[in-house]
């Protein structure tokens, strides 16, 4: 038999191999770019089409001209295209199916039979998994199975509404691209400069292709990356958005265009720079209360380079270097560029990253792959459990999102910056018996804020006071958790994320929005610790000054905090002189390590609305300023309204023994226990790195 094969994907390749093994002749195997050759091909016995919907017109024209039978397994056709395919049957024999598997055919018959028996007590859900090169998702298989269900079944109402809404959003995205294409074409007709005219014409053609269709070039892929980011930002203020391992999925487009001679490294870097500039224009509209905590913050995606491949080998490529270099020239605040660091990272790539770091812009962040992968293995798994990620998922897709939160693009949903716990305030509440000092800028100033964990004079030992600190931390976490459960329930019922859902693997097949549990891995809301260094230094100061040196009573410390240290200047000096976290001093660092673990343990025991467990995290930069403004004076000598310590770093100016001593202090903490990520800022002056002559 002489066959004409259209489509060179997984199925097309398998058909070609099977035909050759059986002694049949494949006259030609054509991709989309080869369809012009159909005009010169005749004398075949059958056309086999496993390609894309956009090839239908060319396939139909060939069948009408030659009257050759058609066997089609192409999926994703619109109703109008299906009608065209059906009408082709009047010209030549046509056999079409969304899936030619015998097992699926049997399954459809079985599904039709069992749904009538199982209703109404059983919920029916279609879940589908494909290789990662699958072009159409949801595929025709999922649609075929859904069509096999009884449309008069009341249980299917919610899913019909869900799919209708998804289609409306997707069609709106298509219309957006067409409007941009028309606008570019209109301007091109009016443009006198031939160079600019050509650019506008190219943009008009590109916006007809993407983001509705697949990218065909590196430029297309950059535009798609921007469009995805744009629509996710329009859709909602959360969760965090990530481009993930940009250098991995963009490299095939880059490599192909370089080999074709239509792209140079310089042009590619220019496109990346333009992408950086464009994404920096995102504006985050915040409520007054949100701006108080996150003032000056901006929307940004996270872009990662380097890391390991699925086989544990270094995954860096030429694009990894260009992404880092582009940020040195663009100097934008967005995206957040990061290097996934491991023992096999090439020295040249590390040097490129250090060159960018030397610019002083905060780019790139450095993420230890070993710690990142360990966090992902236990993500949302509870105290002793594991995440739903496979090792392959982690190696291929694992990357930070937002600031530092571990995730995997296309597989995970959840708010990763949600329950912010002021642990510095918890230490203060243990001193004041739950009352916020009147000197604080807080609606609860002078009132009971948490609970009465013990009057200052009741603690006869440091251990008793330390238990009160831990009780205040646990109380804050439990209170936040109770409210976050309600928030997630309301989100699932009233606020959907259709664009985010479309981009999740398996969500459409489940018929579930991301907020309702459509993702493979559900995370969050999480508990994010704020003011860690301030808390540790406060507890260490009380242990040293009150319980070891007996230089003051806890009642005196309480009174000093209540009065913002006015009249207690000598006591403040003593508290400030106590051992501090960040100096490789085990007196403070042992407290840090224990409270670090306590916060994680209290958090990860809690179950969330979508059935997973809560993750612990360190709160990002800047919130320490807003929370500090609302917090009274603390026992480490900090005055009311002043910023708390930032991230997991030492209190400002308290790490007096240099960066290496600070690094040794930080190394005593169990980083992977914080499965929602950790964040460390080290501010190093030039004098600490370069000897002045």
Describe this structure in words.
The protein has 693 residues and is of the alpha/beta class. It contains 27 helices and 16 strands. Helix 18 packs parallel to helix 24. Residues 130-135 have low confidence and may be disordered.
How do the helices and strands line up, and which of them pair or pack?
Layout: E1 2-6, H1 10-21, E2 25-30, E3 46-49, H2 56-66, E4 70-72, H3 79-88, E5 94-96, H4 102-118, H5 140-147, H6 157-190, H7 194-209, H8 218-235, E6 242-244, H9 246-249, H10 251-260, H11 265-279, H12 288-294, E7 302-306, H13 318-330, E8 336-341, H14 347-357, E9 365-368, H15 369-377, H16 391-397, E10 398-401, E11 405-408, E12 412-413, E13 419-422, H17 423-432, H18 462-494, H19 498-502, H20 507-510, E14 521-522, E15 527-530, H21 532-548, H22 554-562, H23 569-576, H24 586-604, E16 616-618, H25 623-629, H26 659-666, H27 686-689
Parallel strand pairs: 1-2, 1-3, 3-4, 4-5, 6-7, 7-8, 8-9, 12-14, 13-15, 15-16
Antiparallel strand pairs: 10-11
Bin the helical content: 40-55%
Per DSSP E runs of 2 or more residues, the count of β-strands stands at: 16
- The structural class is alpha/beta
Please outline the major beta sheet: 5 strands, parallel
Oligomer class:
single chain
* Overall morphology: elongated
Q: Uncertain segments of ≥5 residues (pLDDT<50)? A: 130-135
What does the average pLDDT come to?
Answer: 87
* Alpha carbon gyration radius: 30 Å
Number of helices: 27
Strand content: 5-15%
Q: Strand order within the widest sheet?
A: 2-1-3-4-5
Distance between the termini: 84 Å
């Amino acid at each position: 038999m002489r066959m004409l094969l259209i489509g060179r994907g997984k199925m097309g390749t398998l058909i070609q191999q099977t035909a050759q093994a059986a002694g049949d002749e494949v006259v030609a195997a054509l991709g989309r770019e080869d369809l012009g050759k159909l005009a010169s091909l005749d004398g075949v016995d059958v056309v086999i089409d496993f390609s894309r919907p956009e090839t239908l017109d060319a396939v139909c024209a060939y069948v009408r001209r030659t009257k050759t039978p058609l066997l089609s397994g192409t999926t994703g056709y619109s109703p109008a295209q299906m009608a065209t395919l059906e009408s082709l049957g009047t010209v030549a024999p046509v056999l079409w199916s969304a899936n030619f598997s015998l097992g699926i055919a049997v399954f459809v018959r079985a599904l039709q039979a069992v749904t009538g028996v199982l209703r109404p007590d059983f919920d029916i859900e279609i879940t589908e998994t494909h290789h990662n090169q699958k072009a159409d998702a949801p595929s025709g298989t999922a649609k075929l199975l859904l069509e096999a269900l009884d449309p008069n079944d009341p249980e299917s109402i919610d899913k019909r509404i869900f799919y209708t809404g998804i289609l409306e959003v997707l069609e709106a995205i298509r219309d957006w691209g067409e409007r941009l294409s028309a606008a570019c074409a209109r301007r091109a007709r009016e443009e006198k400069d031939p160079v600019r005219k050509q650019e506008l014409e190219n943009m008009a053609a590109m916006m007809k292709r993407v983001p509705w269709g697949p990218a065909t070039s590196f430029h297309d892929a950059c535009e798609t990356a921007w469009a995805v980011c744009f629509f996710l930002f329009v859709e909602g203020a959360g969760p965090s958005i990530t481009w993930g391992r940009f250098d991995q999925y963009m490299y095939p487009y880059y490599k192909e265009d370089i080999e074709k001679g239509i792209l140079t490294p310089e042009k590619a870097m220019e496109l990346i720079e333009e992408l950086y500039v464009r994404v920096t224009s995102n504006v985050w509209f915040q409520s007054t209360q949100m701006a108080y905590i996150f003032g000056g913050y901006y929307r940004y995606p996270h872009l990662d380079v380097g890391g390991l491949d699925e086989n544990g080998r270094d995954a860096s490529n030429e694009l990894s270097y260009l992404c880092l270099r582009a940020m040195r020239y663009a100097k934008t605040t967005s995206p957040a560029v990061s290097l996934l660091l491991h023992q096999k990272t090439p020295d040249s790539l590390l040097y490129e990253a250090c060159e960018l770091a030397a610019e002083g812009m905060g780019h790139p962040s450095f993420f230890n792959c070993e710690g990142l992968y360990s966090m992902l293995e236990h993500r949302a798994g509870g105290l002793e459990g594991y995440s739903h990620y496979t090792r392959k998922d982690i190696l291929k897709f694992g990357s930070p999102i937002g600031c530092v939160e571990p995730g995997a693009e296309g597989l995970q949903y959840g708010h990763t910056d949600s329950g912010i716990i002021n642990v510095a305030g918890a230490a203060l509440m243990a001193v004041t018996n739950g009352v916020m000092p009147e000197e604080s800028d807080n609606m609860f100033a002078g009132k009971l804020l948490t609970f009465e964990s013990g009057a200052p004079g009741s603690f006869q030992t440091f251990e008793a006071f330390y238990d009160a600190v831990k009780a205040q931390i646990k109380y804050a976490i439990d209170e936040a958790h109770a409210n976050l459960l309600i928030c997630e329930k309301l989100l699932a019922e009233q606020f959907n994320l259709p664009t985010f859902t479309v981009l999740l693997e398996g969500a459409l097949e489940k018929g579930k929005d991301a907020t309702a549990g459509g993702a493979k891995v559900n995370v969050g809301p999480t508990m994010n610790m704020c003011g860690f260094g301030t808390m540790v230094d406060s507890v260490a100061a009380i242990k040293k000054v009150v319980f070891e040196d007996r230089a003051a009573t806890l009642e005196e410390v309480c009174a000093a905090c209540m009065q913002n240290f006015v009249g207690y200047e000598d006591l403040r000096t003593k508290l400030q002189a106590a051992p501090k976290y960040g100096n490789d001093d085990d007196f403070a660092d042992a407290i840090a390590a224990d409270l670090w673990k306590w916060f994680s343990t209290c958090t990860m025991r809690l179950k969330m609305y979508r059935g997973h467990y809560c993750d612990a995290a360190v709160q990002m930069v800047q919130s320490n300023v807003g929370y500090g403004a609302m917090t009274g004076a603390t026992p480490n000598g900090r005055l009311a309204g002043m910023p708390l310590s930032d991230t997991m770093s030492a209190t400002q100016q308290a790490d007096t023994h240099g960066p290496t001593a600070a690094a040794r202090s930080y190394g005593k903490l169990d980083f992977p226990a914080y499965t929602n990520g950790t964040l460390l800022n080290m501010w190093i002056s030039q004098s600490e790195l370069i000897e002045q002559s």
